[in-house]
UniProtKB/TrEMBL annotation:
InterPro entries membership: ETF-QO/FixC_UQ-bd (IPR049398), FAD/NAD-bd_sf (IPR036188), FixC-like (IPR039651), FixC-like_C (IPR059103)
Annotated ranges, domain FixC-like C-terminal: 372-437
Protein name: Electron-transferring-flavoprotein dehydrogenase
Superkingdom classification of source: Bacteria
UniProt keyword terms in alphabetical order: FAD, Flavoprotein, Oxidoreductase
Entry similarity comment: Belongs to the ETF-QO/FixC family.
Gene Ontology MF annotations: oxidoreductase activity
Length: 438
């Protein structure tokens, strides 16, 4: 006779959301299983990437003593506006960033995710890898009661399931918690390459004094051929993470191949010297949900909650995702603990999770930037036009032509008008302001 595997809670997915949920529940004594389809936790995971310590500290107050596998602390951050042969840089470097633990670190997920899973395991969670959840099991009334995995004899039961399956949210869709598959307008595709380089070269090129300093630069304009999207250049201990991301719709409409956009970016005259002599070590592509607050799935139903990318919890403007995922996973875990105490796994009870998220930065930020994707969609010229304009202004401003400065200022205004009417600029700025204010 087949054995019935029964737990207090099941978590699907070993990314930051799922592992945070599993750790939280296991630590409180719930019999918790974390199911991950990768060969090891983190095997399939991939990001820019910057990890924010506030979310780790909320989960594991003593995380610093547990020696997380961080790459470099961020001591310089900022934006570069790229034109075809020039750049305007706006970065921030501060002594503030030098305290330990720092606010943010670059991280390689193949190292960080297993470390976080190890903490969940130490707290008592059963971490099962190489196992895919095929579907969620429901009783006759539709309440979630467990999951079916691809293992023989692989049904697992629990009164509560937390789905943290990432952006490709097939289980969430099949449960009917979200209506549509991700349309290409609301999902970005990012390609990233990790290029290994000696630490001393990285430090010299980015102006860092040692391994205790690091830079994270987000780049707009020519990096994505002026199309809505961003590129990034992050320093790791012995390598550089470089990547580009654009809405999937843009790749389709402009018949662009992601690897071609990355290759073009790497060959840009401003970027190429940073990579000189480096050896490609890792290459990959991944989707990023840009669904926004208004198109999120239902976060709770009878016996189930959804956290992280599976629920579209990403703030692309601030390149934040892992901290939203970890916070949501932790809050879902805390709600599951309360549900066990109350013996109530109904949607009504589990909706406390949504309330907690609404009161936290996770849904407050998502609400604030709810119009951001629509802004990019309806203002596709924004990044190209203004990045090029800023570069042309800088060139005009920093070169002397033997003409009065008043005339130079008039020329600058003329340069803007050639690209966009005053009315057009005003419209863009109002739209941007609205997208930033929610
Ligand atoms: C190129 C790129 C750059 C990024 N840069 C940053 C950054 O700098 N900072 C930042 O904070 N965020 C960044 N993000 C976003 C961040 O990576 C995500 O928001 C975050 O990883 C979401 O965590 P998650 O746990 O929800 O999902 P994931 O990390 O995607 O984890 C989901 C897990 O579920 C597993 N899984 C899926 N389906 C099943 C199944 N059926 N059965 C079993 N297991 C399953 C997967 O294998 C995976 O391990 C970036 C993303 C990309 C793609």
């Amino acid at each position: 006779m087949a054995t019935k595997h029964t737990f207090d809670a099941i978590v699907v997915g070993g990314g930051p959301a799922g592992t945070a949920a599993a750790l939280t529940m296991a630590r409180s004594g719930l019999k918790t299983i974390l199911i991950e389809r990768g060969n090891f936790v983190g095997a399939k995971n991939f990001f820019g990437g910057v990890m924010y310590t506030h979310a780790i500290a909320d989960l594991l107050p003593d995380f610093w003593e547990r020696t997380p596998p961080f790459e470099r602390p961020l001591t310089e951050q900022g934006y570069w506006m790229l034109a075809p042969d020039s750049v305007v840089r706006m970065t921030h470097k501060s002594e503030h960033y030098k305290h330990e633990p720092a606010d943010a670190y670059t991280v390689l997920r193949a190292q960080f995710d297993p470390w976080l899973a190890e903490q969940a395991s130490k707290a008592g969670a059963l971490v099962v890898t190489r196992t895919a959840v095929l579907r969620v099991l429901q009783d006759s009334k539709g309440k979630v009661i467990g999951v079916r995995t691809d293992r023989p004899d692989g049904d697992v039961y629990a009164p509560i399931v937390i789905i943290a399956e990432g952006v490709n949210n097939l289980l969430t869709q099949r449960l009917g918690l979200i209506k549509n598959d991700l349309p290409p307008r609301f999902v970005a595709l990012a390609v990233k390459e990790y290029i290994s380089l000696p630490a001393k070269d990285i430090q010299a090129r980015f102006g860092l004094t040692g391994a205790n300093e690091g830079a994270a630069i987000d780049i707009f304009g020519d990096a994505t051929m002026g199309l809505p999207g961003t590129a990034f250049l992050y320093t790791d201990k012995a390598g550089i993470s470089i990547g580009v991301g654009m809405l999937l719709d843009e790749f389709i409409q402009h018949k662009l191949r992601p690897y071609e956009v990355l290759a073009r970016f790497k060959n840009h005259p401003v970027i190429q010297p940073y990579l000189e002599g480096g050896k490609p070590f890792e290459y990959g592509a991944h989707l990023i949900p840009e669904t926004g607050y208004d198109r999120m799935p239902k976060l709770a139903a009878d016996g189930v909650m959804v956290a992280g990318d599976a629920a579209g919890m990403v703030d692309a403007l601030h390149r934040e995702g892992t901290n939203l995922a970890m916070t949501a996973g932790r809050m879902a875990g805390l709600t599951a603990i309360k549900a066990h105490q109350a013996g109530d796994f109904s949607a009504t009870f589990l909706n406390q999770y949504r309330q907690d998220l609404e009161n936290s930065f996770v849904l407050k930020d998502m609400k604030q930037y709810r119009r951001m994707t629509d802004f990019l969609d309806t203002t596709p010229h924004f990044m190209g036009t203004y990045a090029n304009f800023l570069n042309d202004v800088a060139l005009r401003y920093f070169t002397a032509h033997g003409i009065p400065k008043r005339d130079m200022e008039r020329q600058i205004v003329g340069m803007l008008q050639e690209r966009r009417s005053f009315f057009g600029v005003a419209q863009d700025m109002v739209k941007l302001l609205r997208a930033m204010r929610g």
